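tl;dr need the bound structure. longer version: we got a ligand (pyridoxal-5'-phosphate) that a collaborator sent over and nobodys looked at where it sits. i said id run it. heres the input, straight from their email, havent touched it
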Amino acid sequence: MNKQNKNRPDLRTKAVHTGVYKDSSYNSVTTPIYPTSTFYFDALGKNKGYDYTRSGNPTRSALEENIAALEGGVGCSATATGMAAITAVLFYLKPGDHVVTGDDIYGGTYRLFAQVFSRGGISFDFINMRDPRAVRKAITAKAKMVWIETPSNPLLNIVDLEGVIGLARSKKILTVVDNTFLSPYFQRPFDFGADIVVHSTTKYLNGHSDVVGGAVIYGNKDLETRGRFLVNALGVSEAPFDAWLVLRGIKTLVPRMETHQANALAIARHLEQHKHVKKVYYPGLESHPQYALIKKQMSGFGGMLAFELDTKKITPDQLFKRLKYFSLAESLGGVESLIEHPWSMSHASMGEPALKASGITKETIRVSVGIEGAQDLIGDLDNALSG
Ligand SMILES: *Cc1c(COP(=O)(O)O)cnc(C)c1O
């Protein structure tokens, strides 16, 4: 689709082989888990590179090396959750600083910005990042950070990475991209000049709905030095066992993403024709209003889609009850298909005015498409929609 394609075979190999510290004691082919809080010194001032697990742990280091390689950063800190990663990054700032971000970012990020960091003296502008005029108006030299999330959740709106990052860079403003929705397989923010990339590894990177985690990936060494200091000082690093699970999950990132995408595209095309569905939001549909931009900056469309249900025909609750393979649940990015109601579930913490402003309605349904058989998933949806 674009120049990122040439990275694909490379990424498959990196996902499997990078940061895998094979065990020299017994020759295990996988990285051992080191469940230890501390590491003994051979002599004063002499250890094997690790002293205390909050600051560093070999299992976590293996994961960090792997994620840094996939994103193309110079280093990575693996954190306890995605929110822990985002919290750490906000601590690059100090009271009085200003952040520009989208009005349709992840609900938990919105809450952290609006209800926690605002009280610490940091100010935020939540703007429509698809509108170049709003972007130019908001991104002035006053801003210290631009926070980008693309595609957005749940309506899959796209932010122009080259345009927005380019503008911020020309004013020497730090740019951060939350790349959770596409994973480095389908989108590489560093190629567009981003300074920092964050992930909720809870989602596609781990991919098996069995752990929560996050990652901060650094675009240069200075950012890495400060970031590692912050993650250690704040105490938000990831536990060794959780790091091990994410490292295991990442090895199958590429085949999982391919299947998520193929299934999501098939479902989106099918729903677009369904008489009980009013509208479908999916970056892989030619009907997406930003399809040209999508082709330019993404090398795939991902596994998330949303649609507007015709609630005169069927209510969300009726739909959810009739489904067999789609569990009614928040979160996303796992091998199993999930479905949910953003208005009352994942995005409820935004409050009604912000929900309305971002275009989410009581009829919006969000789907995290899993890797099951596409025909089974389509059949399940058809059956449930028709009643
Ligand atoms: C889930 C999510 C987060 C938060 O991650 P947690 O692991 O739940 O703390 C942040 N950003 C995006 C885009 C997410 O989907």
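gonna send this back to them w/ a short note. The chain has a mean pLDDT of 95.
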